[in-house]
Amino acid sequence: MPEALAGAYISQHLALLRPNRTLVTAAWLALALWAEESQRQLDEARYGGTKQQLSLDDIRQVRIRMPSLAVQRRVTEALLLEMQHIRRIEHLRTRQISFLLERRRAIVNAAVSGDIGIPGPRP
């Protein structure tokens, strides 16, 4: 375990996956398990009422696509770059929304306090 994780807690809600690295890259496996098809399989396997859970066998049974390692690396690199781009756009969008909300508050405050004129018919 890396020193940075010293003091971390492990619970029953984690599963350690040790992929055969001659068949799959860790990044491909992570992205594949995050994919809609894998999530659907995991949703179907969940059991329990209030607190749903999965068994290790349920996780073992998830079927993912396994292209060649070269394809896995190319696709993973492209997906990670695209995800980084999306995160950047989301960050900019959040900043823009905050800016617009602040501007709206300032305009409303200025209108209520009489600091700006409201256009309309002149006497």
In words, what does this structure look like?
- By secondary structure, the chain is an all-alpha fold.
- It folds into two domains: 8-66, no CATH class; 67-115.
- Helix content is 56%, strand content 0%.
- The chain has four helices and no strands.
- It has helices at residues 26-34, 36-45, 56-60, 69-113.
- The longest helix is centred in the last third of the chain and has 45 residues, at 69-113.
- It is elongated, with a radius of gyration of 25 Å.
- The model has no long low-confidence stretch (mean pLDDT 88).
In short:
This protein has about 120 residues and is an all-alpha fold. The protein contains four helices and no strands. It has helices at about 25-35, 35-45, 55-60, 70-115.
**What series of H and E elements makes up the topology?**
HHHH
Our measurement of the CA-to-CA distance between the termini, rounded to an integer number of angstroms, reads 79 Å
Q: Could you say which structural class the secondary elements and strand pairing correspond to?
A: mainly alpha
Average pLDDT, rounded to a whole number, is 88
Number of strands: 0
Strand content: under 5%
Total separate domains:
2
Shape: elongated
Please, how many helices?
Answer: 4
Largest sheet geometry? none
**Helical fraction:** 55-70%
The radius of gyration over CA amounts to 25 Å
Main traits of this protein?
single chain; 123 residues; mainly alpha; 2 domains
Topology:
Layout: H1 26-34, H2 36-45, H3 56-60, H4 69-113
